[in-house]
Amino acid sequence: MKKLFLSDIDGTLMNSRKEIHAEDIEAIREAHRSGVAVGLASGRMYAEIRQVMELLGVPCYAICQNGADLVGPDGETLRSNRYDAELASAVRAFTDREPFVPVVCGSDGNYVADLTQRAEEVGKRFLTPLRERARLAEEIADGLPITKFSIYGEVPALRELLEQLRTAFGDRVTASFSDPDGIDVMPGSVDKGTAAEALMARLGIGRADTACIGDSFNDLAMFRACARSVAMTHAPEPVRDAATHAADSVADALRAWLAGA
């Protein structure tokens, strides 16, 4: 019976120091050797996810930037979604304001219009450097391919921004917390769940034979797509409540699932 295991990266597989525990690496390798298809589902772009795959030493499917791209183990793009220029310009104008640090994300880089000290601090969390593009607004209006907007700031202000986004754009965008101090704003209907369903269909693996693990609100759509969803025990309470199981580590979650526990 084919099985698929999907893991979030930040806060789940990788800690804040960008480390992966050896036990998690070995559990994923064991699963791969037993025939389980492994996927990494992240808000990060493919170049960053590729670095994580190299640490694992296992060929993985990649759900990139919360479902904007689905990439195969050989690096082939299997599915792709981008903002249209008009909506991207509107979202950029709406979110590019104090007190936020807005990062504009493409499939090949993460950009800021001005690499300020605050932006440089935000950039330290990425696995590839932020790029400064002084004409970013004009380039977006001209059709620069955009996958998502990542907005960083204080939590109360971000919560208010989420409500403002829903009022202003409705279902034209999908927005949720992806970091403790950051939200991702995607085109409507683009999320980890729709990408997970597309991958299941491609592999011929049903929902009942798919498990996933995550720790944040951008993982909830993926939870809904999989029969077995695991929240990290440190995840916010609403995320834990939405999952069917909880675990302290990826290794614990993966081994329990394969053991039928």
Automatic annotation (TrEMBL):
Against InterPro entries, the record matches this protein to: Cof (IPR000150), HAD-like_sf (IPR036412), HAD-SF_hydro_IIB (IPR006379), HAD_sf (IPR023214)
What Gene3D superfamilies would the database entry show? 3.30.1240.10, HAD superfamily/HAD-like
Q: Which residues cross the membrane?
A: none
Known PANTHER family for this protein? HAD SUPERFAMILY HYDROLASE-LIKE, TYPE 3, PHOSPHOSERINE PHOSPHATASE
- Name of the featured protein: HAD family phosphatase
